[in-house]
Protein 1
Amino acid sequence: MNTQNTGLFPKTILILLIVFLSLHQKSSAQEGAYWMGLSFQNPAAISTPSDWIYGSFSHLAYDFGDFGKESYNLFTASFDYKISQKAGTIGLDFYHTKLGLETADLVKVNYAYDFNVFDAAILSFGISGGTTFYKNALSEYVSLDPNDPLFENPLDEHYKTFNGNMGVFIYSERLSAGLSVTVQEQISGEDNLSIDIPAVFTGVFSYKIVDAQNFAFIPNLMVDYSDKDYVFMPGIFAEYKKTFWAGYQNFDFEDFHSLMLGVDFKQKFRLGYSYSFNDFLKSKILNTHEFVLGYRLNAKS
């Protein structure tokens, strides 16, 4: 990124993280591959029948127009494990990303308690809390004009934010739905640095309209509401023999799309890939590639 535009920091990484993490939740459920990573927004989603541990590597490329192109990598990991029916389910979320001289890390603990309802459904309530650690090294920038007497090296910036979530989630073989709220609040940082991130309310819904022995077809929808603005993300998901799966997601009915495909080996190991874009196989605006590896902790042999 061009060095004269230091004013883009730290807003750059915040904006990209918000956009990319929003996309990430759709691209790869604890039980359904189209919602893997939903626990970052709704901790109640960890109370699905299967306990998972998974990790993903994502590469994002963004075109800033006059400021040039930029790319960064995002590493995420998550797991959930049901201790017992009485004790509930615990989980952990983590991500790490680096964009130029900026770095951000999140560590978050989730807890959910569930009930069996309607004989074949699970109703769960969840809460989570964690911290995002942000820092940059702006002092390493150098002036484009080494003879500029007015140039002063910018100062490095550091801050931490509290990340909290509360949610409710219902899961059944045919229908899944959830509602949650995500908040972030700056808890430390420079005196002249104030980060204000509005709360985000997230609703999800999916219904398996085709449930044959070897094939399932599941439309799904996620809606985010924040600061008087709605974002709709509809999608479709198909699964063959509970082994091969593929899906499509659209971002707010606009020209930004996400394609995903993967395989669950013996219902135990998950391998997935997602490609998100606004212009297929072209580097304009925003492109992301995500690779997912998952392991089901309580898989039957």
Protein 2
Amino acid sequence: MVTASSRQAFIGVLVALLATFSRADTKECWGFAFTNDNKPPPGYEHDHDCVSVDEPSDPHTWNDNQFCAPKGIGLQWSNSGPIKGMKCTQIKEDAEPGEHTWFDNFICIDRDAQWDFEWSMTGPIENKGYRCVGWNEPADPHAWSDNYLCARPHRPTGTTTQQLPLKGGTTTSSQPAVGRMEFHMDGWSKYCTATLVAPRIALTAAHCVGYKSTAIGTYGTVDFGASGKRTVVQARPFGSNTGKSDVALVVLDKACSKKITPVPIGTAVPSDGTEISIFGFGCASESTTCVRAGGNTKQVVTATIGESAVLCPGDSGGPVLVAGKIVGVNSARWWLEQGDVFGNPTTASIKYAMEVLPKDFPCASSHGCADGTSWCNLGVGQCMPAGQCLELKRQGDDACLPPKVKCLCPDHASTCTDKSVKCASLCPPRKILTPKD
């Protein structure tokens, strides 16, 4: 339970963290960064958007600076006034000469983006829930050393909550359907929480899969502890930003153990003030920074919709439960007393996808493929038309072929083993796969 005293202590720690992140040398914070070398900082290449911060009329190398922000907020830079229909913040330095035209430069984000920006020419903004990133061009002599763009989450009015560790939570072995997800794609990795909602489908946050739908492949694992680990073979996100649409389904390579009962999804998001149970594999201590990967221990905490501030990295994707049903997905944490942000998994589109997705993966872990299809490993294992399997497997691994199918190798470069119903070496590109007469 989040008590008043624990909340005061928690807020005190967060204020201390804000002070730590408000030093004059700060150029990265809260997923935002400013650089002077015309490229994003390491780790920002895949799940962040970056824009060039330029002013053509200023001769002091304002042509190699970039500002980066988390994907999904519509980040744009303008040196010709605010962009119509967007939420824009003026970037300026009053000490700049008029001919450098620093009076019509703006950083803009989508009007409904869940961030508020404020510009400061006198150092970082303190004690308002902001975190600040220094904007400094060393080659410009006009007092840019104390300029900061400050950001804080924008609290939506009248509805839901959500994001990341269960600070103040307790270790739990309940809810075995809640697992630790490790997701890999395009050279980056994320550590989140996922919940089994069907034998081969788990629910998580869209930002945990990079907001990207995936083709069949190998994208990491969901570890259910003693009940086993499953490979993620496909992801289907339903949103492109933190908040109520920050929900995704991931398909597993095979059904989970019957020891795990999938958790049902509720029919509606509860109102503010409802008592909830939040699960996740994030950090458990209040001193953990906001960039740490998720932990290995499952935590649970009792909190209240609209007031909780208990999430941490690694809890993303974890379930919010009321009466044993999932009514939210951990998405993001608002700062200080402003509560958490949860995705809404109760929509009709998600329920429809849960019905359709398994039909794309009719084959379970056994090799009981129908005639005319074959079992292809491809790193994940699935039934495919024999010809398609052969086409995809020219590079190497074995495929399990049904008894009525054999390899024909016209150039006699390789043969197939009939007894084991496996190809010791799959046919080269010119060879074909045909049914026996």
